[in-house]
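Protocol step 6 of 9: fold each sequence in the batch and record its structure tokens directly after the sequence line. For illustration, a two-sequence batch is reproduced in full.

Sequence one:
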Amino acid sequence: MINPVYSPDNERYSNGMKYRRCGKSGIMLPEISLGLWHNFGDVDTFANSQRMAHYAFDKGITHFDLANNYGPSYGSAEETFGEIMRKSFLPYRDELFISTKAGHDMWPGPYGEWGSRKYLMASLNQSLKRMNLDYVDIFYSHRYDPVTPLEETLQTLVDIVRQALAEKGRLMQKAVTAAYRAGDKQLFALASGKFLDLILLQDKLLGTRPEFRVGKWIEEARALGDTPEEKELYEWNARVQITTWGNRNAADYGGLRDYAHKEWNGLLKDFYYMRWKLYFDFLSQRMEGKTPAEIDFYAIEEPWTKAANPYSAEAEGDCIEVAKQVMQAVE
């Protein structure tokens, strides 16, 4: 017997479920969420797990909470949910709020639990594959790690948000290209504007962590010099290394431009934003039927390498608050 295609209750948002705002964010969660700690493992009957998920959504429960090691066995709850997504919930992904976590033991060896960068990154990648998802709405560090520095865990979580923002930028760049090829001026302006906004938001996010600030890189380079002249030389070298990789011959003819590309606060806002905007303006003029001169990228890049404007190495802003802004931008 073939089961009918799942269709959620049309009254799911008017049958009594209430939603509450989480803190100062834009997130609204139902008063009851469905946790998949038990009843969704590979020891359970899939049809029963699926019925529970359907019933929850039909009653207005939009938050499904998982973790990498929910089951039993480990990972199987996410696999079950992935099948439910594929068979039932995929058309309703934007109505769902899906969270997962990592922190407790998941696989053997020293990298299979706690809060290290290696473990958190690997665990999230595995979770996304098991659930047939491109993203989760919230990814938690499941427990405090008494050994791994908290700074490493925080840096990793910020880096995960950075990757999500970069992926949104990649998709937006495709929209820019498609609009240009189609000659759609309005869509081109909208998509290119959003792409540039994402660069600035990425810059703001990365500014909340000292590890992602170009100021830290320049400060460390200048510290190697003993005299003002040496400090200036080392700063120039530090700036060149992450941009043009040398003079015009190296950048243009040697193909070394962006050889050591970095997504860092300060560099994104003052270097890459400028370059992308100039390129989009160039394409926009072409769409207007004009014939602008070809862009001499090295001529606009070199001034930044020779500049001496200060960049702070200290973190600025609240990474959690900026991450909320990123979440809204990538939705």
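Sequence two, same batch, same settings:
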Amino acid sequence: MTTTDELMKLSCVYAAAWTDSDRQATHAYDALRAAIESLVKERDALKAALAEPAAEPVAWGCFKDGVLQLELIDTKEVVGHWIKSDEPEMQGMKAAPLYTAAQPPRAPLTTAQIEKIHDEESCLPDMVGMKEQWPEIVRFARAIEAAHGIKESE
């Protein structure tokens, strides 16, 4: 069995033998390990994204020279039939699916934004003598936001 004194002697011998190249190799190993862990996370994220079902197009667009000419809410086959028709306006058209884009979450207006809108849109000349009504105006604006599904973040 190894005693504490023997372990201390061994650690001193090991520490004395530890060189700069050992330290550099350890740092390089740590950096390589971190890079591999990062790549594994990226790979897993890509696998998860690819595993999600593909979104269905909401419509098909007919494009000529990269400009949308016609939007059809139909199947790919029907749009393909339109593209292949002999109609002169359909010559050179290419079909592409159209998807909805995720919309960013809507945030409530700041009090300063409400005040600016009030100043620009109100039929009242200014806020003089209306300071006591200001909380009601803000409450009214918040009620409109809530009716549109815009909530204050918690």
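Proceed to step 7 once all outputs are recorded. Observation for sequence two: The first helix runs from residue 4 to 17.
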